[in-house]
Every structure is written in structure tokens, then in C-alpha cells.
Amino acid sequence: MCSRVGSIVLDLVVEAIVENMAIKVPFYEDLGKIVKPSAIFASNTSSLPITQMALASRRPDRFGKKKYLTLIFDALFATQ
Is residue 6 part of a domain? Predict the structure, then answer.
């Protein structure tokens, strides 16, 4: 899916693609290979469990649902 070779320097990746595990899992497999290991991944899924996506990313300890991050985003950007 991802055609870039090398490493992408991002601290946070928020995914909002179609609600289809057959698309999300390969996306995270590919993304996990090119984004720096310390990056945090967040899925915008509202209906799918994140366990499979987190494992595909190879960083289940740095993976969450966006809905849990909404308050953090609001707090960060409300002061800007």
C-alpha cells in the first residue's frame, strides 16, 4: 500500500479511512514499517476493535482510538 522507502518522521498519526478491517490492517502493516518507532497511532474507527490494527502496526503499546484523544486535541488547540 505505501510505496515510500525510508523513514517518515511523525510523532502522531491519526487514521480516518474506510471502516473495513481488510483495508485498515494492511495500511497499518505498511505504515508501521516506515514511521519512526516512537510515533503514536490513533484510529478514527467507531465500530471496529483496535487490537488487530494495533498488532499490525507493530506498536500495540502506542496505539489508541481517536475518540479517546478528542479531549487532548481540544485542550491543545483551544489555546492556540
Answer: no
